[in-house]
TrEMBL record:
SUPFAM superfamilies: Concanavalin A-like lectins/glucanases (SSF49899), Pectin lyase-like (SSF51126). One of its GO terms (molecular function) is lyase activity. PANTHER family: PECTATE LYASE C-RELATED. Transmembrane segments: none annotated. InterPro entries: Beta-glucanase-like (IPR000757), ConA-like_dom_sf (IPR013320), Pectin_lyas_fold (IPR012334), Pectin_lyase_fold/virulence (IPR011050), Polysaccharide_Lyase_1 (IPR052063). It comes from the Eukaryota. This is Pectate lyase C. Keywords: Glycoprotein, Lyase, Metal-binding. The keyword Lyase applies. Residues 464-684 form the GH16 domain. GO terms for biological process: carbohydrate metabolic process.
């Protein structure tokens, strides 16, 4: 069943995979670039020469955290799982029994196992290749101890009551460089997913860790000094240890739901030192929750905590609040002032993390009835959920469709259809590793077997090559060439100032908007101030985007409300507040989907009398929605999403409003908002 490659570096199998139900939409120019080389969108993933150096290191596109550089079978063999047997030739157990393999699946369904599966070194388990309903492994747990440089993606592991007593659904006692992505793990007899001992560089991302069986019912121990990253995971229906952390750990953008009396996040509970980040997570009480989100911390647990939310009211709505950064919210831990310099994820707000979990956590290419029910619990926001002692209480493992594999005559893992379309020989396994000289300027092909799974952007030529400047950084030197005065709709908007052309000035390329207190205006107007808006309208097209940046000296006192923002050219939303200061001493980054559905983030804004830079990167996410990354002084702050923003025209506005949302009364003397180096680069 194993076909060994006869050429060198195997950097060329199975990249990222499209989210379920994703439909990519391409501009005509992008379609020409893609199809002119006979690229079959559902089969080919490729990295351009400009990004290949990074890709050669990452386990796969989107790998993050401590385990992001796991090798996973390079310079090894492809092994096809061809049956659902517990053991023997063509089985999953046989596939992982020897090192240096990339494991793909010609079958989908339930693999019922009696003994634990032990995974060897340098293994890539590519569950995304399984047809039908994917792969569910049921009946016992897995050990990845000493499974160095392994990658596990898109697979479901359900241990169950019949599994070995006192064992975990997944356990790692030693090893290094391991990453799990989009796995669903449940029904552990001891812990559900645990890492202990001499373990170095592990990432668990986009995973479901669920329903440890009562009476133990534990999410898991994360106890190693070698570094564990936990990003965008869902811990659900575990009585305790959601997780229990000791050592070096980075816990970001996770959702923890319906923990029991044993505790949610357990902060060390140890005399050994721990050094952790806890950032942008959301804790949601469920029917079984009887204790606060954080327990059992002490002075040995050194933590940077920021923007963690807790929804404790169980009212069916997601309406939690940020936890205070005090021991009353986090137990008796030692708070540190700066985050530990661990390999960070793409940042999301806690609210965006919940949204992402609902869409794509776990084995989301093959979301089965169990995971669907768990996600429905989260959507109830406190009203549904329950811990179980036997999987039968939750309906058991269910039925999983087998599906049909694509034809692959030479067994090299590349379907015949793709090989024929791209000039390869479907009967010659050696041609899997053709290099960039012959193929589309790519150093290596990255083949997507059987299933769509990558982001649309992974299939797109690099958009930087299409960059055009629509507003240059010196546009204020010829202001009226690029800008109009006032708002696009007139002189007033949601505050205490009327915009006036005479309160706009430019000196040496610096735009100054001056808010002047006036007593000759009718309420609610108490100021005359300045605003400009770009003459152009900006539209993110399918496959495209924008980079929008500027530098500011912005007032932050009560009653001052400067802003740099995008608003709908027609109707509302969209709205993206690239930077907004609302009289609180902070800077805000906001994206509106409706008036009630707003993703917002406030950040400290030190030294407001100095120049600071702000940048927003707008990108097509999936042909419908726009992903927005916000940067302050070159440091990424958050990622937000605008629903159905593709094709919607946007107006760029710079204004200095007063009072309103920034409080009142405002300043009693004139104040200014200064702006320079505004630049808009189109990537459409």
């Amino acid at each position: 069943m194993a076909i060994r490659f006869r050429l060198g570096d195997l950097n060329a199998v199975i990249g990222g995979y499209l989210k379920p139900h994703t439909r990519c939409t391409w501009s005509p120019s992008t379609q020409r670039l893609l199809y002119s080389r006979n690229m079959k969108l559902y089969l080919l993933l490729a990295l351009t020469a400009s990004s290949v150096a990074q890709a050669a290191q990452l386990a796969f596109p989107g790998a993050e955290g401590f385990g992001r550089y796991a090798v996973g079978g390079r310079q090894g063999a492809v092994y096809k799982v061809t049956n659902l047997n517990d053991s023997g030739t063509g089985s999953l157990r046989d596939a992982v029994s020897k090192p240096n393999r990339i494991i793909v699946f010609d079958v989908g369904g339930v693999i019922k196992i009696s003994e634990r599966i032990v995974v060897s070194k340098n293994i890539y388990i590519a569950g995304q290749t399984a047809p039908g309903g994917g792969i569910v492994v049921y009946g016992n747990g897995w050990s990845l101890s000493n499974a160095n440089d392994s990658i596990v993606r898109y697979i479901t592991i359900r241990m169950g009551k019949g599994g070995t007593s006192g064992k975990d659904a997944i356990g790692i006692a030693d090893g290094k460089n391991i990453i799990f992505d989009h796995v669903s793990v449940s029904w552990g007899r001891d812990e559900t997913f645990s890492i202990n001992g001499d373990v170095t560089n592990v990432t668990i991302q986009n995973a479901i860790i669920a329903q440890g069986l009562v009476s133990h019912s534990c999410g898991g121990l994360m106890q190693t000094d070698g570094g564990v990253s936990l990003f965008r995971n869902l811990y659900i229906d575990n009585k305790t240890r959601n997780p229990k952390v000791k050592g070096v750990n980075d816990f970001q953008n996770n959702v923890v739901y319906n923990w029991g009396g044993g505790g949610g996040y357990i902060a060390g509970d140890s005399q050994a030192d721990s050094y952790v980040n806890i950032i942008n997570n959301y804790f949601i009480s469920g029917p079984d929750t009887t204790v606060t989100a954080f327990t059992r911390g002490n002075s040995f647990f050194h933590a940077y905590v920021k923007d963690n939310f807790y929804d404790s009211n169980r009212n069916g709505k997601l309406d939690g609040a940020a936890l205070c950064e005090k021991t009353s919210c986090y137990s008796d831990i030692d708070f540190v002032k700066t985050p530990y310099n661990y390999p960070a994820p793409t940042a999301l707000t806690p609210q965006a993390a919940v949204e992402l979990v609902l869409k794509s956590v776990g084995n989301s290419l093959h979301r089965d009835s169990v995971d669907t029910a768990l996600i429905d619990q989260v959507k109830s926001y406190g009203t549904k959920g329950g811990q179980i002692s036997d999987e039968k209480e939750f309906g058991g493992v269910g039925e999983i469709a087998n599906g049909a594999a694509l034809k692959d005559s030479d067994g090299d893992g590349i379907p015949d259809e793709w090989e024929t379309k791209n000039g390869l020989n479907p009967n010659d396994a050696a041609d899997v590793l053709l290099s960039s000289a012959e193929k589309m300027q790519f150093k290596n092909l990255i083949i997507a077997l059987h299933s769509i799974g990558a982001s649309c952007s992974a299939l797109r030529p690099p958009i930087e090559r299409r960059a055009t400047t629509e507003i240059p950084s010196d546009s204020f030197s010829s202001l009226e060439t690029y800008w109009n005065y006032l708002y696009p709709w007139g002189a007033t908007h949601n505050g205490g100032a009327r915009m006036d052309k005479e309160h706009v000035s430019v000196t040496d390329g610096v735009l100054t908007l001056t808010a002047e207190p006036r007593d000759d205006q009718e309420d609610p107007i108490h100021y005359l101030s300045g605003a400009i808006h770009a003459k152009s309208t900006f539209t993110v097209s399918a496959g495209g985007g924008y980079d929008i940046s500027a530098e500011f000296v912005a007032p932050v006192d009560r009653g001052t409300w400067p802003a740099f923002w995008l608003n709908a050219a027609s109707g509302w939303p969209p709205e993206i507040d690239i930077a907004e200061w609302k009289g609180s001493g902070k800077i805000s980054f906001n994206t509106f989907n409706t008036s009630d559905e707003v993703t917002a983030l406030d950040r400290d804004y030190p030294n407001p009398e100095e120049w600071h830079s702000v940048r927003a990167e707008l990108r097509d996410e999936n042909g419908h929605d726009v992903r927005v990354k916000f940067f302050l002084d070159g440091v990424e702050q958050t990622t937000q999403y605008g629903r159905d923003y593709i094709g919607a025209g946007l107006r760029l506005i710079v204004n200095y409003q007063t009072e309103g949302s920034s409080g009142s009364p405002g300043p009693t003397t004139p104040t200014t908002f200064q702006v320079r180096n505004v630049e808009v680069i189109s990537l459409n």
